[in-house]
Fold this protein.
Amino acid sequence: MDSYQRLLDGTDDRQSDYVKQSIQRFYTEFVESIRDELY
């Protein structure tokens, strides 16, 4: 994911962990919602 890497490169170290967690949380919720729709 090129855009993800660019986002992290543009974020300072203190905020990069927060950004990673936010993106991970978003994708986790996104995948779970798709799973709920499919089953």
Observations:
- The radius of gyration is 13 Å.
